Amino acid sequence: MSEQSKKNNQTKPYDPSTEGACTDFSDQMSYGDYLSLDAILTAQHPKSDAHDELLFIIQHQTSELWMKLAIREISAARTTMQAGDLRPAFKMLARVSRIFEQLNNAWDVLRTMTPSDYTTFRDALGPSSGFQSYQYRQIEFMLGNRNPAMLRPHEHREDILEMLKQELATPSLYDAALGLLGGAGIDVPDHILRRDVSQPYTPDDGVIAAWHKVYSDTSKYWSLYELAEKLVDFEDYFRRWRFNHVTTVERVIGFKRGTGGTGGVSYLKKMLEVELFPELWRVRTAL
After folding, report:
1. Measured between alpha carbons, how far is 1 from 9 in angstroms, rounded to an integer?
2. Which are the contacts of 155, defined by CB distance < 8 A and separation ≥ 6?
3. Domain span holding position 190
4. The CATH number of the domain where 161 resides is what?
5. Does a structural domain hold residue 98?
6. Residue-level pLDDT at 221
7. What is the mean pLDDT of each run of 10 residues along the chain (287 residues)?
8. How many CA atoms lie within 13 A of 197 on its CB side?
9. According to the model, what pLDDT value does residue 247 have?
């Protein structure tokens, strides 16, 4: 090939069809069709002309999409754990941790919105609030943070209310883990294994002792040890997400009340004290 031909090839615009790429989607599924992008990209409906309202909407919509995936993975992990099949559960729990890492990163984008920016559209939100996210409520219920009073914000939607009630009646992810402890011949208090799973979980010294046995002989109980660390890893990311939520809200609205009527920062700080898998943290002191 002559130098002139090489030069012409280098300056000629790239045409993907010359390499076999499909470019005609008149009668077949395209990327946008597969992902339903028309529905997704037209699902943002700002209530004001404020520049930052679109950021606020997209951040929360994408968070809800990640939570949808987290719910699927937590549910599948719980099912495989109840069946005694831990290996797939480990992968699913690791994935949920990475999902919450993504959710954490989203706060960094939202924090580019200043208090002045937020005040330009806050009134347009009315009483709507992230406090009312039923997917977040479902995740908390699935993990074991169960408070029947939290059903009330969802009573206006019978389908959602019924779904959350069914979740409250189902053993949580942590209940499934405690069941595996008992199934491995480790003494777990009977009142824990037979408790009313719809009620909030109360930490128990007997469960600390059970996890202590696992951590004291990891070679014998390796699968349970790995499960414990996967749960701790996940709660670590979950706690960071809650902390970043608090700091973002305080940075944007200070100590004003939330749009949904909660105490705002004061309410979120109370949530920082909630432990999902309490004995897995407390056993570290006992070791």
Report:
1. 10
2. 161
3. 49-286
4. 1.20.58.480
5. yes
6. 97
7. 61 79 84 95 96 96 97 98 95 96 92 93 86 92 92 93 96 97 96 93 96 98 98 94 86 69 68 87 95
8. 20
9. 86
| Alpha-carbon span 144 to 166, nearest angstrom | 14
Indicate whether 111 belongs to any domain: yes
Q: What is the count of structural domains for the chain?
A: 1
Q: What is the 3-state secondary structure (H, E, C) of the chain?
A: CCHHHHHHHHHCCCCHHHHCCCCCCCCCCCHHHHCCHHHHHCCCCCCCCCCCHHHHHHHHHHHHHHHHHHHHHHHHHHHHHHCCCHHHHHHHHHHHHHHHHHHHHHHHHHCCCCHHHHHCCHHHHCCCCHHHCHHHHHHHHHHCCCCHHHHHHHCCCHHHHHHHHHHHCCCCHHHHHHHHHHHCCCCCCHHHHCCCCCCCCCCCHHHHHHHHHHHHCCCCCHHHHHHHHHHHHHHHHHHHHHHHHHHHHHHHHCCCCCCCCCCCHHHHHHHCCCCCCHHHHHHHHHC
Q: CA 127 from chain center: how many Å?
A: 23
Amino acid at 82: Q
In a domain, 77, yes or no: yes
The answer to the question of residue 41 being in a domain is no
What beta strand segments (E) does the chain contain? Answer: none
Task: Give the pLDDT confidence score for residue 228 in this predicted structure.
Answer: 98
Per the rule left: phi > 0, alpha: psi between -120 and 50, beta: everything else, 14 is: beta
pTM above 0.85, yes or no: yes
